[in-house]
């Protein structure tokens, strides 16, 4: 059973004794959900057999979100929710990718077991499995949860104990702009503001890469999904996992500091976080409960935190922000909760909002006329969960906007649903839209646009042009001219099948599936070889529309199902940056989610979900080095220099529950370098 939940305030409601729930007492005491001990005992056996591998033996210690605990109960004690909806989620999603495959009684028994583990006492009345009856049952928290009372309103602003100003310095704007020529550091998520993922370092080359060795290892000691893209500055490496932020010595892996943010607003547990931004002594990151936070880079102490997103409405922050001049840019996930996506600029000194651009337009805004939702269902989507890029010369922010919601019933949404699945070029100072291109219109497969980088220059037909690469979950690499906005080429980089076949209630098999194509790490540019090198997932799925579409707050608002195939794989593909012609391809037996990094040493560093770290010849794709890290690689791969030595750091282990059939491993940073004298 895999589903995402958001924390909500606890509310007490009446219930129906005839449905297995005692009525609310005359003195206002909390009702007791009734099920029998035999049902919960049977459910425990089903859970161990079919659910524990994802959610853990205790229901809260696995890769998937917890199914027990105070927060879980509070999420379901909510007017818009009922026991029938929880039962349907279990039935559709359990076991993972095999929803509905168990007997009906097993699903009722698991529901009874979940109730027992969450503090609801067994009784003599059998828990009903009839949906029409369960729909009338609204949970209230058991006494132990109710005693805690409702969550206090979240403060809009949290001031650090040491003041708003950092004690540390750097990098400044001049240093960020000069990153392309400075190989020492890796100061932004995709290395430079343009997102090239290219380093001018050349100590490690195609000729000596075979001599790479691990030089230090740091285990994070956390159980969250690990998708972080590390930053490196002045010999320190910065990374995130869940709500934890860490700094370690980039050469020795010794921890410098660790900061754990404890959610103070309604939050989304189990949320992935992909990293920080840095400038002028500050680190910036988002939190699961909707805060934008600034930490002192040297000490890890909180400078300020501003509440900018409403997790109680489904908004949370997973992306690494981007910062330039006096502004930090960020937007919320998760579109499948029917949030109305946006991207905003906030002041670096106190987090005050400067502007907001609505990706799903508000009524009356341009683009609102492209939504015509049927049956008064909410419109949503347009999440931002992947890297931004920045054109310094034109002062334009490039944003990848994700899919519309509900995901699959395209005809129900009506129109093209701007500005979802669009490349957005936004004036950084004002938030005004400069131009856009909707690259995946009328989406019915959850094919987010995920990447709007690198920004690069290359000759096309003999003329040097300013270009931008875009990719997404539809598995196509597209390049556009940043001046004329013309599309220059579109190159498939994974298996494409039945892309134009409509999704039906009978089911349609298509490639990529919802977890296919390019995910949270995108192309790297190698200027010497003039190639774009892109990781991709090769994973198809069967898409099916539901008979009816219903919006349930904080549940996946899909309008159907997408069951991934058993078989999966991945690709690393090098494409000519001027023409789109494929130069070379490397196939993997597992998805490729990790970042790709190119260097002046003629290399492309990459990682596979099977745990292998690779050093490839950038021109030919030949494997020069392969090392098994012991964990599925789903995070960033960065290269930098400390005291004259070039290092490569790999974020490996436990990228998340959707990828759990690969060996997950423990979240770990593995740092590689050449033995002394190997670069001679």
Structure keywords:
680 residues; mainly beta; Cytochrome Bc1 Complex, Chain D, domain 2; Methanol Dehydrogenase, Chain A; 2 domains; five-stranded antiparallel sheet; five-stranded mixed sheet; 40 strands; globular; disordered N terminus
Structure overview:
There is one protein chain. With 680 residues, the chain is mainly β. The protein folds into 2 domains: 17-146, Cytochrome c-like domain (Cytochrome Bc1 Complex, Chain D, domain 2), CATH 1.10.760; 157-673, Methanol Dehydrogenase, Chain A, CATH 2.140.10. Residues 1-32 have low confidence and may be disordered.
From the alpha carbons, calculate the radius of gyration and give it in angstroms.
25 Å
Give the tally of structural domains: 2
Strand order of the largest sheet: 1-11-10-9-8
Q: Which fold does the CATH topology of the largest domain refer to?
A: Methanol Dehydrogenase, Chain A
> What fraction, in percent, of the residue positions are helical?
under 10%
- Continuous helix count: 9
Query: Poorly predicted ranges (pLDDT <50, ≥5 residues)?
Result: 1-32
Residue-averaged pLDDT: 90
CATH architecture of the largest domain: 8 Propeller
Number of strands: 40
**Overall body shape:** globular
Distance between the termini: 54 Å
CATH homologous superfamily identity of the largest domain: Quinoprotein alcohol dehydrogenase-like superfamily
Name of the level-1 CATH class of the largest domain: Mainly Beta
Task: Please report which band the strand proportion falls in: under 5%, 5-15%, 15-25%, 25-35%, 35-45% or over 45%.
Answer: 25-35%
Q: How would you classify the helix and strand content by structural class?
A: mainly beta
Main β-sheet description:
5 strands, antiparallel
């Amino acid at each position: 059973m895999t589903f995402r939940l958001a924390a909500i305030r606890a509310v007490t409601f009446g219930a129906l004794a005839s449905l297995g729930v005692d009525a609310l007492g005359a003195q206002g005491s909390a009702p007791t959900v009734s099920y029998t001990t035999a049902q919960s005992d049977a459910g425990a056996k089903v859970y161990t057999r079919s659910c524990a591998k994802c959610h853990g033996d205790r229901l809260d210690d696995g890769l998937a979100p917890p199914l027990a605990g105070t927060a879980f109960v509070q999420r379901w004690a909510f007017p818009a929710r009922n026991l029938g909806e929880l039962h349907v989620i279990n039935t559709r999603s359990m076991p993972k990718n095999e929803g509905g495959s168990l007997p009906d009684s097993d699903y009722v028994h698991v529901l009874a077991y979940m109730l027992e583990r969450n503090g609801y006492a067994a009784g003599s009345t059998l828990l009903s499995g009839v949906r029409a009856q369960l729909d009338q049952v609204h949970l209230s928290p058991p006494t132990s949860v109710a005693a805690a009372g409702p969550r206090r309103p979240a403060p809009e602003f949290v001031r650090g104990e040491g003041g708003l100003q950092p004690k540390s310095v750097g990098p400044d704007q001049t240093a960020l702009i000069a990153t392309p020529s400075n190989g020492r550091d890796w100061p932004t998520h995709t290395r430079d503001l343009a997102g090239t993922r290219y380093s001018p370092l050349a100590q490690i080359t195609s000729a000596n890469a075979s001599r790479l060795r691990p030089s230090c290892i740091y285990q994070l000691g956390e159980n969250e999904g690990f998708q972080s893209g590390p930053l490196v500055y002045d010999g320190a490496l910065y990374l995130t996992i869940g709500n934890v932020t860490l700094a370690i010595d980039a050469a020795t892996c010794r921890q410098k500091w660790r900061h754990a943010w404890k959610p103070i607003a309604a939050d989304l547990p189990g949320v992935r976080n992909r990293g920080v931004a840095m400038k002028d002594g500050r680190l910036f990151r988002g939190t699961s409960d909707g805060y934008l936070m600034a930490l002192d880079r040297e000490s890890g102490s909180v400078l300020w935190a501003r509440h900018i997103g409403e997790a109680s409405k489904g908004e949370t922050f997973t992306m690494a922000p981007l910062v330039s001049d006096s502004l930090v840019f960020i937007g919320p996930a998760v579109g499948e909760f029917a949030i109305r996506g946006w991207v905003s600029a906030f002041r670096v000194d106190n987090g005050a909002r400067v502007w907001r651009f609505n990706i799903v337009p508000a009524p009356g805004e341009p683009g609102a006329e492209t939504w015509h939702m049927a049956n008064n269902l909410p419109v949503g989507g347009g999440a931002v969960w992947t890297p931004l890029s920045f054109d310094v010369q034109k002062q334009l922010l490039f944003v990848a906007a994700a899919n519309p919601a509900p995901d699959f019933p395209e005809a129900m949404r009506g129109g093209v649903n701007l500005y979802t699945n669009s490349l957005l070029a936004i004036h950084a100072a004002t938030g005004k839209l400069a131009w856009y291109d909707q690259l995946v219109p009328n989406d019915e497969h959850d094919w987010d646009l995920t990447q709007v980088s690198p920004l690069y220059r290359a000759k096309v037909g003999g003329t040097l042009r300013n270009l931008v690469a875009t990719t997404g979950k539809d598995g196509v690499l597209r390049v556009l001219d940043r001046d004329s906005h013309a599309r220059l080429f579109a190159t498939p980089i994974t298996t494409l099948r039945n892309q134009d076949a409509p999704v039906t209630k009978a089911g349609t098999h298509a490639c990529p599936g919802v977890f296919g194509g390019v995910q949270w790490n995108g192309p790297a540019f190698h200027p010497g070889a003039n190639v774009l090198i892109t990781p991709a997932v090769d994973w198809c799925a069967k898409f099916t529309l539901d008979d009816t579409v219903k919006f349930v707050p904080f549940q996946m608002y899909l309008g159907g199902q997408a069951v991934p195939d058993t078989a999966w794989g991945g690709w690393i593909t090098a494409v000519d940056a001027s023409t789109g012609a494929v130069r070379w391809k490397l196939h993997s037996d597992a998805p490729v989610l990790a970042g790709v990094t190119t260097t002046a040493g003629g290399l492309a560093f990459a990682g596979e979900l099977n745990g292998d770290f690779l050093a490839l010849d950038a021109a030919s794709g030949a494997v020069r080095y392969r090392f098994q890290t012991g964990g599925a690689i789903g995070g960033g791969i960065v290269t930098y220099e400390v005291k004259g030595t070039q290092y490569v750091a790999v974020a490996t282990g436990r990228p998340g529950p959707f990828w759990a059939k690969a060996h997950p491993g423990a979240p770990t940073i593995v740092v590689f370098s050449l033995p002394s004298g190997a670069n001679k």
